[in-house]
What we know:
The complex is a heterodimer of chains A (427) and B (392).
Chain A: H1 2-17, H2 20-29, H3 53-67, E1 79-80, H4 85-88, E2 101-108, E3 111-113, E4 122-123, E5 126-127, E6 142-146, H5 154-159, H6 162-168, E7 184-187, H7 191-203, E8 210-211, E9 214-217, H8 228-240, H9 271-282, H10 295-306, E10 317-318, E11 331-332, E12 340-342, E13 360-362, H11 372-375, H12 391-396, H13 403-411, H14 414-426
Antiparallel strand pairs in A: 1-5, 2-3, 2-4, 2-6, 7-9, 8-9, 10-11, 12-13
Chain B: H1 2-19, E1 43-58, E2 61-62, E3 66-81, E4 84-93, E5 98-111, E6 114-121, H2 144-149, E7 156-165, E8 170-179, E9 214-223, E10 227-237, E11 242-243, E12 246-247, E13 253-265, E14 268-279, H3 283-289, E15 292-305, E16 316-327, E17 343-354, E18 359-371, E19 379-391
Antiparallel strand pairs in B: 1-2, 1-3, 1-19, 3-4, 4-5, 5-6, 6-7, 7-8, 8-9, 9-10, 10-13, 11-12, 13-14, 14-15, 15-16, 16-17, 17-18, 18-19
Amino acid sequence: xxxxxxxxxxxxxxxxNLWAIPLFVLLSACDGLGPxxxxxxxxxxxxxxxxxxxxxxxxxRGDEEFGRVFGVADGLGPIFVAESCERCHVGDGKGHPVFNxxxxxxxxxxxxxPMRSAGGPQVQNRAILNHRGEVVPASATGAAGxxxxxxxxxGFLEAVDDATLLALEDPTDSDGDGISGRVxxxxxxxxVSEVIDLERFLDGAGDRLRIxxxxxxxxxxxxxxxxxxxxxxxxxxxxxxxxxxxxPVDPINFAVGGFATDGVPDPEVxxxxxxxxxxxxxxxxAPVRREADAPEVVAGERLFIDIGCAKCHLPSLxxxxxxxxxxxRVTFHPYTDLLLHDMxxxxxxxxxxxxxxxxEWRTAPLWGIGLAAVSQGGTGFFLHDGRATSxxxxxxxxxxxxxxxxxxxxxxxxxxxxxxxTFLRSL
Amino acid sequence: xxxxxxxxxxxxxxxxxxxxxxxxTMVQGGIYQRPFIVESGRxxxxxxxxxxxxxxxxxxxxEGPSTDLRRFNIFLFSTLGPRxxxxxxxxxxEGGEEVRVETALLDYRLHPALVIRAxxxxxxxxxxxxxxxxxxxxxxxxxxxxxxxxxxxxxxxxFGVHGRFGARAWSFSYDTYLTNGLNSGIxxxxxxxxxxxxxxxxxxxxxxxxxxxxxxxxxxxxxxSVGEIGLSHYRGIYNVFRLEGExxxxxxxxxxxxxxxxxxxxxxxxxxxVAFARIDLPSDLREIQGDRQWGFYLDAVTTVWRPRIRxxxxxxxxxxxxxERVDFNQGQFSTTGRKRFDERNAASVALSFRPVPETxxxxxxxxxxxxxxxxxxxxxxxxxxxxxxxxx
Lengths: 427, 392
């Protein structure tokens, strides 16, 4: 009898508490046990299609290096802007203004002086302990902020032949349309010549086109980097204070003394890692459009062309030959001509690079602009320094060669303005 | 004044007698409340180990299941005399890749209210830093606040005093220590944020690299049937501000304040901790590294079934829920005026089976949302973990 009571009591106990097991299963089932991957139209990151296994493995290794956070023990600094590539290019997208670069210089009677003896042209505004971050020297006549761009699709832009860019030039506005783009030219000295040698060895690249002994630039807000390797080596040193084989000396804060030591032997990143990052950038897919065929979007694109935006933000370019099948001679849609254009006093910060005048900027690729807010904390920060927080505001700040297009945009009905912006958001 | 001293002495004397029949407080007694420790013989050996299998998926990507022997710890305990005890803990983490002395301390009990402690000790910042043995918990992962804000397990070389007193059901305890303190690894590390756990290091057991000891203290009250609540604080200089006698930088301090709680509400055991960290950073690093952090965790665990199994005296099946949050970077961006994020929020459910009280088989399901510094859409991770932890 006693055993029966005990058994019943135990059964009651079990019945009373068995709710916990389905509860556990139910909670476990929430979220489908694991979150699914976001749709490819909602993110920028992702490899090119059709890559081989070894190419994918290198791409993933490059992704890891791109996300690697450098600490003091790894050689960060002694002065720097950010601790990793990913800090500025979150999810391979546009950066947040907190990680804006600042560059400065002085306009003289002989041209623009990047003030290298004062730590120019880039400010490294942060420092490791026992060092001091830089500030813009009082003697600078101009300084500009640079918001990090999205890095997707860069392999396509790199693969465009120099000859194609030269064919797009119209420096004297011979067709009289008010647009006079020109290529940036970069001195083939110093690190640039080392980059050329290395690329010739790595990629079997032929001789680059030279104009007056100089090379065509295409990356950066002023198009002052000739290739992804050039841009990447510069970014390691100038943005993170990480030395490489190509740039083996840390940045110096001349305001506190002519030394560049962070206690870590140089180079601080291997050439293997740099090459992996370059390959990663080269093999990121182009941004995928959203609702490209929607009537509103199609109408917006027509307006974009009609009011002249597409003269600089060229919808299509064609890549030259490439060892990567998905890029090789492919026509793609970056909405840029990679040329320098005068943007007028609205965007003239008194700073420049190469042969560009201070109001000239390289046409920003618009692909991926619809996902800007996804990497910028929910708000898009547009133009070279993120000064515009809406696409309408960004358009309104276009002057110089773009002034006539801005005027025509202002003349559109509110409905048409909305269509054009909807088209931009689909990119 | 003499009268006050006399009253205090009398109170302590009465309290000590009462305490002889009481449980020790949760945190202070933590290192002695381990099953291997018995009063026979001079030295006892014991330990615990934890092994887990983890299957995790982040935004649709998973690398398949992974199994690891996370910890294998060996305790050595020795009674050197009626008032003198030595205890130590040697920890093998990540399958033996990391080996360190987690505890090696001597307690000299002058009185229950005054015990001198010296050696490599666990500063009592919150309760978890002292009571962190895996077999005590139904959850595989340690709480985020206790590892990412409070850098558990924080073991430092130093000395201090602790004691407890009280009468009847209530008891009170205190701990206060001076230790070497955290180092400058807390910032500009590979975590990409201020992380106190990266300020720990082997140097904790060697010379203090800045010659400025850190202070830690905890006061707590415990009711025999209600539970314990503690308030703790830690403060120290973390940077090297002086080299060869020359001042090379200003002193920069780190402080931690924590409240811990353990109590029983009916059949449910509730345990939790909230902690706030303040780190004195150069102005150019505050926004991107984080100079103010906080977090909490709250566990609720109950026994749902005590089956009769031949050969086992008190097996039981337990379920638990944990909620937790850590904010690594409080404040706003000066550039945009918007909130800085860098937050992790997680919820876990646990199902565990204890064939004996010192051994636990655990099955956990955990969801976590991570928002980066800029506040971009959260990265979602779900994790299923199965594991075992046992004292031996």
